[in-house]
Amino acid sequence: MARGRIRARIRRSHLYTFACIRTQDAELEEPHQFEGPGYSRIVYCNEPRRHEKKPLNYCTNYISTTKYNIITFLPKAIFEQFRRVANLYFLLAAILSLTDVAPFSALSMIAPLAFVVGLSMAKEALEDWRRFIQDMKVNMRKAKVQKGDGVFGHKPWMKLRVGDVVKVEKDQFFPADLLLLSSSYEDGICYVETMNLDGETNLKVKRALEVTLPLEDDMAFKDFSGKIKCEDPNPNLYTFVGNLEYDRQIYPLDLSQILLRDSKLRNTAYVYGVVIFTGPDSKVMQNATKSPSKRSRIEKQMDKIIYVLFSLLVLISLISSIGFAVKTEYQMPDWWYLQPYIDSKLYDPTRPALSGLFHLVTALILYGYLIPISLYVSIEVVKVLQAMFINQDIHMYDEETGTPAQARTSNLNEELGQVDTILSDKTGTLTCNQMDFLKCSIAGMAYGTRSSEVELAAARQMASELDVRDSISSNKNGTDASEIELETVVTCKDVKDQKSPIKGFSFEDSRLMHGNWVKEPNADVILLFFRILALCHTAIPEENEETGAFTYEAESPDEGAFLVAAREFGFEFCRRTQSSIFVRERHPSSEQPIEREYKILNLLDFTSKRKRMSVIIRGEDGQIFLLCKGADSIIFDRLAKNGRMFEEPTTKHLNDYGEAGLRTLALAYRKLEEAEYSAWNNDFLKAKTSIGGDREAMLERVSDLMERDLTLVGATAVEDKLQKGVPQCIDKLAQAGLKIWVLTGDKLETAINIGFACSLLRQGMKQICITTNTDTSAQDSNEAVKENVVMQITNASQMIKLEKDPHAAFALIIDGKTLTYALEDDLKHQFLNLAVGCSSVICCRVSPRQKALVTRLVKEGTGKTTLAIGDGANDVGMIQEADIGVGISGVEGMQVYKILSFLQAVMASDFAIAQFRFLERLLVVHGHWCYKRIAQMICYFFYKNIAFGLTLFYFEAFTGFSGQSVYDDWYMLLFNVILTSLPVISLGVFEQDVSSEICLQFPALYQQGPKNLFFDWSRIFGWMGNGLYSSLIIFFLNVIIFYDQSFRSGGQTADMSAVGTTMFTCIIWAVNCQIALTMSHFTWIQHLLVWGSVATWYLFLLLYGMMSPVYSGNAFRLLVEALAPAPIYWITTLLVTITCNLPYLAHLSFQRCFHPMDHHIIQEIKYYKKDVEDRHMWTRERSKARQETKIGFTARVDATIRQLRGRLTKKYSTLPPQVAMPPS
Questions:
Q1: Residues designated catalytic
Q2: Which residues contribute to the annotated binding site for Mg(2+)?
Q3: 160 within 8 A of 275, measured Cβ to Cβ
Q4: Which residues are annotated as a binding site?
Q5: CB within 10 Å: which end of the chain, N or C, has fewer?
């Protein structure tokens, strides 16, 4: 706190020209005039109890991201379960099982249904309980609240009420939306980081009203009271309108006095504020959406399959009931030995239609095995086990933070394998929000030998590409690959990326370090460059009392990196007073550093509109300089004719830095005469103290007059540190055929820089920037602005349509204001069509709600699977809106105070990973595996149940549609529960068409999911046809073989129990051999479960037959005495099993020989060890097995190689033809 009081003497508002525009007469401004709907909120300051009662009755500060609560859990969870068609059918069957028409006991129908539904509901409850626990971690965080008599005490966030006076200290989050009353600075300034709301890393400056500045300590609030009338709760983050009634005066309020929940206090010791909006009413929660219930596409398609099977079930049940009615009417009276009870309504020859109707119900229950209830249980078990494997994957464990991957819901595992579009946040997701000074250009000379991460990644890829492609071309036309390598600009000399020991400074170049810069040709320009870095900023130095080293509290990470660079170059910013900056300069000529004082005359601060910052200083020699830094396009337009000496080389360096993914700024200066400055300063002070709405425009005009006739000094190149492995991950995902959109709250230039850094953008890519001019949008009507947006979208679409170059790539860049119009109903599909036609899309300055709306547009407009990934509270909307939401849970360097924001993103997500790079393995490996496993598992499930269920129908047709089952009740019970369930679970958990390494080496394999190759209708009906064929073979071969053949040694033929048991044995063998043929990857577990299931059948038959006939019935000693001694039993089993699986085996062989899929080829290469014996062929196959992409550093390398090949071709074409000499 002491440090805060020392700093409080500086009136920070004097540093700002634009961010804190307020004149001495600001309190005389008229209050806002508003009435009617939308402006009805009244807040009584320091009187929270008044807001708990009617008519106000505002909500508490409690927040919840759960799907259920105690009251809604039962009805909502039951509704979720019975949205599944099969569960609805089994509910109906369970109800009917209570009647006389049921062929089975009521318990056998109700118990499995209750188990399945109960298990699924318990899983939902557990997952929601985890969300509740995380919500409570947020709700129970402590805030300092005025409890009365000027005493502040801690209170949980959830108990805050509207009207409470809150004290927030440095690096804490604001617990609700607050009105700023005062801060540790005497002029009421405070700095706020809004990264969680809009993704921006630059600090925002907020300023309290002058009238509340005396409220500077706890006791000042003892008798404090006031009344606020303002707008109602709304999701708009960038506007606020209200009035404060205090001391019988009314003062206007705007956004500059509002501190939003989930933003964070920075560079300020403490602030006092009064709560305006709480909990669900706060702006960040207004931007949130309710937790949706998500279902995978496979699960939705499974419902359609259930409809098909249910239609088949109804059809065969109708056939059975009609057949039964005919038999009852015409043949039942003659079957005297089958006469039913006299009063039976189920077998009444006089009313055959009624008997047939009753039999329809019986048949619907009897043939229910066509729709297996165990399917859902098996899928739930498989998905939970798959989720466990995801959680336990050591390759997705982040050692730095100790964070593993987490599948927070297992319902969407297979959806990971069908993603088409990824929508990603930028700050904290792609980047670490850490800037490193890497390169610079001074006086037309480039300095900095270290390569950026993008350059290193591209160099590695270039090396491997050249190795493969040029060896192929040399085989074809004899071209020497070394000629291309000589032409290559990208080198791989810095492949080992050494970690910088100094945070924010990764610069390496001996020409500038250790005072060597004085030996350079333009040492005077270099000196000026270093001084601009040390002087042109608004940062505050903080000295570590133990080490004496300085750290800097800067408004942006870039500014902090410049100051660290200046310090390392020997120009250490060490102190700031109200009017001066002190810098310790180390010159080679002197042993000790010299502390110089520079008077700050004016500071023209940076805004997103100005895109530059200037400071006017007076040196110790009395000379006045304007030092300026800003976007190169802005600075170059303001250069004097004689100040452009270094423009051409600097422009080239800036282009190179941009290609390397670096953030660039140009530095310039202007020397001022005393009279010239005095005249300008008078105009500047008049503009600054003027009253009226045009004050800001006047300031801009006066500032613009000074920031002209500049002399270019150089440029800086700062690396926005990407999270580890981000470029490689994006490249691999692009090769897998995935589209990547970036949605960020950052400004346009920052978003473009990150686009280059991630290789979403590259030199040569045509950028389509759709924006609304700020001045135009302020003056023109909404219709005119919208027409302009429509015209831009139409022109861009036409340009893409007319493009004939197959290698041309387009990038769409759009800002939040323009997006407001583009997302309107009559324009959004046109915008989407344009975006889909572009290789990459970057949306900047977007609000959380816009992120969610864009995600919804892509999801609904394309009809394909979307995945959203983010790390902050501002990403919750899009994470929940996407088909799959992924939260970043362990960002590198994450401080304790950031946990709140990350929790919100993670708690809203379906999967959580520690870093963006793990998304590659989550999708390309686990997504690919889970999709194929679940798809094959479901297809196999329907196959085996059709093969089994239809044999019941055939037998009933042979027995007068009597409803008699050919199988023992225990056989039918064990079929899905034990004898065939474990092998199919092993298929869903352990199956791998290729290993994880192969998945990553052949990313194009991933496209099998988005193309739905393993769960389309042709494959589904193919499996159903296979089940139909197997059922026919199993039933009719057994009937034909056993019909007239003697079975026992005494010559007796087989009875129903012997035939039924033999048929059941054939089914067990056929379906288990089928699953063995389906599997590509065997472990001992799969062998144990598949062949163990067959062995379990024989063991059960043996033990069941040894039980008393009271329990075993016709199966008493059946295996030992009847089946095992009969050779026909074993021969029939072998014959039927082979006949059933022969068509599938033939299909598989034909497909592998004539129409192999990608994984078939890879499997054979691995099987014959060609990947070891012929590495060249293996590398060539790898280069071919990727989707053609126009983003990622592979696309950048492809473009570079095309250019080099073109240059080589041009070179060879200019050479004179060589005459071939005949052999001597």
A1: 425
A2: 425, 427, 871, 875
A3: yes
A4: 425-427, 559, 606, 629, 663, 744-746, 845, 851, 871, 874-875
A5: C
